[in-house]
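Supplementary notes for students who missed Thursday's class. We covered one full example, reproduced here. Read the sequence, then the structure, then the short commentary at the end.
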Amino acid sequence: MSELGKALREAAQRLAAVSDTPRLDAELLMAHALGIERQALLLDPLRHHVPAGFAALVERRATHEPIAYILGYRDFWSVRIGVGPGVLIPRPDSETLIEAAADYFGAARPRRILDLGTGPGTLLYAALAEWPDATGLGVDASDIALGYAHKNALALGLDGRTELMPGDWSAGVDGAFDLILCNPPYIAETEPLMADVADHEPESALFAGADGLDDYRRIIPDLPRLLAPGGAAILEIGHTQRISVGELARAAGFVVTCRQDLGGRDRALLLTRD
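Structure (token representation):
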């Protein structure tokens, strides 16, 4: 076994207690330390030597620091989203919202997109990459998140089609949007979380009151005035919240369709008008 192969094996063993994907984490950290993509590492592992900084990265991960914070990014849909402490890390499950939007619009193209609670721009930039003619507005209450969103817009070449503003959900937002995306906090205050999340990601992006519904109660009633005719609002939900959030949406006059993530769990509600 090569020196690099041995280092990857030992790192994976070290991380097995803190990660569900220890080998993947080790490979990502090795590639990051080498300044290359993971694919390049896997294609030609014998070409590389173990860099001096690799062990320190492994130890950071061993303390439950999220892999995305160590790397400084998370790939999502077709875009790379820069992240760091103070912002919610993009999850693969959230791609369900973009898939639902693509299925809903089909050959049509949403022209104006609103992302409420945009964070580092995750959903907004995935949507803008999917529809090159669209423009988007991202709103967030966190200055840290908006800072990352600005940087990501520049890095992705989307700054010319993006407007970002500080705000309290849809307060102060005007206009009609063809597509409204939102991944609000939806975790109940007493729900336990893994250390990677609980000790590192911002509480304001995770928790929403005793039942996890506080922000839905504020967001959903204001969506009818913002949604253009023929448009759709798509909200991420916790996998047990289909009925409760769906009732809020129907009370606001929406037709509700639920979409499942790749694990078969309820993950997104698509809201439309009759």
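Commentary. Residues 19 and 25 are 8 Å apart (CA to CA). The chain has twelve helices and nine strands. If anything here is unclear, bring it to office hours.
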